[in-house]
Specification:
Helix content: 25-40%
Radius of gyration: 24 Å
Strand order of the largest sheet: 14-15-16-13-12-18-19
Bound molecules: NADP nicotinamide-adenine-dinucleotide phosphate, magnesium ion
Structural class: alpha/beta
Number of strands: 22
Distance between the termini: 69 Å
Length: 500
């Protein structure tokens, strides 16, 4: 265990961080069975700011037993939907009441600018619980007229029931730690499931605090269990567990495939929200000032650590130089620094590993012949800082165009016409999101249909709302988060047929 350096920790968080964070199992805060903890880092200083319990398969076992009990015989399943709804709403209220602290925790642990943590992560997380609280009382089946050909004259009353899938394992990433927990927990709670949640090892803190708020709201013991720890141990145990009925995962496509394999043992249901390499398209008839600012924001928001980041920038050929110059100018002027500095527009990457990954892509892109018109390197200072980067002369054979970088690096490419654009935009194994900037409304509608992506933003980017479904085509995932579409991931349909 390293020494905790509290120099970067705001005073308000010091007491929370002064002791190792525990696992939340069956309503109790407990150390890992192994007694092990792992260090938690501040990405802006590379210093240890706390410890979290290192849960593994033995702890997952206890958490699953608690979730099983709460689902099979516990108070959650016997509560009315309206009682559940009020508790879920209360979690949203408590997030809002503790918004400052949660935003600070997120900035400290993940690195993102504090204003972003508060306005986006925390506010959207509160919204998600409230939106899903509303759905808890509106889950209903239907009555279905049946005409059974081999029972002439038979009379039946048939209907469907929507029932919770059961115990769900939820494995989430580090880019929006609190919000990803909210996206996962909200629909699971609304449908009446119980949960074992594993936050990412890089960012366990806000999930632990959320667990405290869930307890404060009065959600019964065992309904939500939180296991901090590593993917290869705790995460893998969740994915493979035969008493877990469904697993919901957000993270890399590579690990998503491992989850699918592990889930095959008991054929648990699987939903996946995976990577992306999303095209962001600027036409020469767009409002260029807005489009240029939007293209910069699409890639530099959250340090580019966004699964739907606009990382392939396609610009119509006549305005290519102008748009690349405009985005580069914004990149060169972005204030990069600690998320706690109110001037900061872009914080550090989440971890040393992520910094090395992004650096590797920058080197590969430049070696392949791309040219940096902004950035192109890491910052020579403590913390995991990288320059906002624009690479032109990019082409589709390069790894910077084909692979998800998950950093503030955009590859710019020209296109001539719609047909060429659609073929280039869809030339990816991913299909998470796309942006289109044009004043031509018919073209916008046509392209929205032609692009293979789960979300298409027109004259905007990175617009998220609890009511809007989000998820991937192709290898970007299975199922949808948010909106009523997310409920389907946690429900199963039972047909009941009565002979009259
Ligand atoms: P990752 O390994 O896919 O991590 C996501 C989650 O899966 C974490 O909670 C992780 O736990 C867990 N995990 C890892 N291995 C597992 C396994 N074998 N079984 C079950 N769970 C497992 O992602 P990463 O390594 O943090 O980042 C690598 C790349 O993934 C990024 O550069 C980016 O391209 C992509 N990514 C995408 C998203 C997204 O929103 N779609 C988010 C994050 C990363 P630990 O963190 O504790 O190991
Ligand atoms: Mg951290």
């Amino acid at each position: 265990m390293s020494t905790i350096t509290t120099s970067s920790v705001p005073e308000s968080l010091q007491s929370f961080l002064s002791s190792p964070k525990k696992l939340f199992i069956d309503g109790d805060w407990v150390a890992a069975r192994s007694g092990k903890c792992f260090d938690v880092f501040d990405p802006s200083t590379d210093q240890v700011i706390g410890q979290a319990a290192e849960g593994d398969a033995a702890d997952v076992e206890l958490a699953v037993a608690a979730a099983r009990k709460a689902f099979d015989s516990g108070p959650w399943s016997s509560m009315t939907a309206s009682q559940r709804s009020r508790l879920i709403w209360k979690v949203g209220d408590l997030i809002e009441q503790n918004a400052d602290e949660l935003a600070q925790l997120e900035t400290l642990d993940n690195g993102k600018p504090l204003a972003v943590a508060k306005a986006a992560d925390v506010a959207l997380a509160a919204d998600m619980f409230r939106y899903m609280a509303g759905w808890a009382t509106k889950i209903e089946g239907s009555t279905i007229p049946v005409n059974v050909p081999y029972v002439p004259g038979g009379e039946f009353h048939a209907f469907t029931l929507k029932e919770p899938v059961g115990v769900v394992g939820q494995i989430i990433p580090w880019n929006f730690p609190l919000l990803m927990a909210a996206w996962k927990l909200g629909p699971a709670l609304a449908t009446g499931c119980t949960i074992v949640l594993k936050p990412a090892e890089q960012t366990p803190l806000s999930a632990v605090r959320l667990g405290e708020l869930i307890q404060e709201a009065g959600v019964p013991d065992g309904v939500v269990n939180i296991i901090t720890g590593f993917g290869e141990t705790a995460g893998a145990a969740i994915a493979a567990h035969d008493q877990i009925d469904k697993v919901a995962f957000t993270g890399s496509t590579e690990v998503g495939k491992l989850i699918v394999k592990a889930a095959a043992g008991n054929l648990k249901k699987v939903t996946l929200e995976l990577g992306g390499k999303s095209p962001n398209v600027v036409y020469d008839d767009a409002d260029l000032d807005t489009a240029i600012a939007g293209a910069a924001d699409a890639i530099f928001f959250n340090q580019g650590q966004v699964c739907s980041a606009g990382s392939r920038l396609f610009v119509q050929q006549g305005i290519y130089d102008e748009v690349v110059a405009g985005v580069s100018e914004i990149a060169n002027n972005l204030k990069v620094g600690s998320g706690f500095d109110s001037e900061t527009q872009m914080g550090p990457l989440v971890s040393r590993e992520q910094l090395e990954r992004v650096r590797g892509y920058l080197k590969a892109g430049l070696a392949d012949g791309a040219e940096a018109t902004a950035g192109g390197a890491a910052l020579d200072q403590p913390g995991y800082f990288v320059q906002p980067t624009v690479l032109k002369n990019a082409s589709k054979s390069m790894s910077i165009v084909r692979e998800e970088i998950f950093g503030p690096v955009v590859a710019a490419m020209p296109f001539a016409n719609d047909a060429e654009l659609v073929s280039q935009a869809n030339d990816s194994s991913y299909g998470l999101a796309a942006g289109i900037w044009t004043r031509d409304i018919s073209k916008a509608h046509r392209l929205a249909k032609s692009v293979k992506a789960g979300t298409v933003w027109i004259n905007c980017y990175s617009i998220f709302d609890a009511a809007l479904p989000f998820g991937g085509y192709k290898q970007s995932g299975w199922g949808r988060e948010m909106g009523h579409a997310a409920l389907e991931n946690y429900l199963q349909t039972k047909s009941v047929c009565i002979s009259l």
